[in-house]
Automatic annotation (TrEMBL):
The keyword rRNA-binding does not apply. Pfam families: LCM. GO terms for molecular function: methyltransferase activity. NCBIfam families: mthyl_TIGR00027 (TIGR00027). One of its GO terms (biological process) is methylation. Gene3D superfamilies: Vaccinia Virus protein VP39. It comes from Methanobacterium formicicum (strain DSM 3637 / PP1). This is S-adenosyl-L-methionine-dependent methyltransferase. Keywords: Methyltransferase, Transferase. Belongs to the UPF0677 family.
Length: 293
């Protein structure tokens, strides 16, 4: 059976964009993020839902699995910080795998004119994004290089070379909401190519799920609901890392850990109020790893 993204816009990409649009209009500093482009990319009929508090709250409860709204907000904020850090440190290249409707190359383009941004994604989703940006009058940063790829038929390595991604330059690789959709062979291939192309002091940020989620053990907050949702959309998860074994995984990829964040870490970092109380519970299935070559 073909996966949905081969013929249609990725539901995962739409889901992430919608959450970013919602969070842009939040009033709470813990829930508010700063993707001002996302509200322009969602269907226009959803604009009132995004902007009006009580409609937004009803929609969130009805359509988002428990804790995934909070998780995507925290992940967006954390990777925004990593992205800006790479630009401020004069990284030569930033490559976003499965970019979906990501807008960092537009939002942060004024910070550094040197860094080149590469966005790799399935053609249908990428074309939809470019069309929507132009339709809504969003000026596309000329430093963004869009790389369309049919993952079933085309070589990821060849595509990078074809579109001018340089070997051995200081680069940031972003795998946001991606690893869980790959199989083990694809994971190995992806990290092998990253190692081949990454220059000294290059960095990688990726998120992943626990392997127990794939086994349906239902240990974590919101696990059964989110797992059911991705299966329903024919974009099932297929890769995870056992709890406590991130270090072993990174060792096989010749990578060094900078930071590791569990759902509890994300709650403490992004959802504490002024009194130190946790006001948002993050879906427990996901973790984030920030690493260096």
């Amino acid at each position: 059976m073909e996966k949905r993204i081969e013929n249609n816009v990725s539901r995962t990409a739409e889901f992430t964009c919608l959450i970013r649009a919602f969070s842009f209009h939040e009033k709470s500093p813990q829930y508010k993020s700063f993707d001002n482009i996302a509200p322009k990319l969602i269907p226009k009929f959803l604009s009132p839902v995004v902007k009006i508090d009580f409609l937004r709250n009803i929609f969130k409860k009805r359509f988002f699995p428990p804790g995934m709204y909070e998780y995507v907000i925290a992940r967006t904020k954390f990777i925004d910080t990593v992205f800006q850090g790479a630009i401020s440190k004069d990284f030569d290249q930033i490559l976003i795998f499965g970019a979906g409707f990501d807008s960092r190359g537009i939002r942060f383009q004024g910070l550094n004119q040197k860094t080149v941004f590469f966005e790799l994604d399935a053609p249908v989703t990428q074309k939809s994004k470019i069309h929507q940006l132009k339709k809504r009058g969003v000026v596309i940063n000329p430093n963004i290089v869009f790389i369309p790829i049919d993952f079933n038929k085309e070589s990821f390595k060849d595509k990078l070379l074809e579109y001018g991604f340089d070997r051995n330059k200081k680069s940031l690789f972003i795998l946001e909401g991606l690893t869980m959709y790959l199989d083990s062979a694809a994971i190995d291939n992806t990290f092998n190519i990253i190692n081949e192309f990454a220059g000294a002091s290059s960095e990688i940020v990726f998120d992943y799920i626990y392997s127990s989620v794939l086994r349906g053990e239902n240990i974590y907050y919101g696990e059964s609901e989110v797992f059911k949702e991705v299966k329903k959309e024919n974009e099932p998860w297929s890769f995870g890392i056992e709890k406590g074994e991130l270090g072993s995984f990174l060792e096989t990829k010749n990578l060094q850990l900078i930071r590791s964040l569990t759902s509890e870490d994300l709650e403490r970092e992004f959802f504490k109020d002024e009194d130190g109380n946790i006001i948002g519970k993050v879906n427990g299935t996901h973790c984030i790893a920030y690493v260096r070559k």
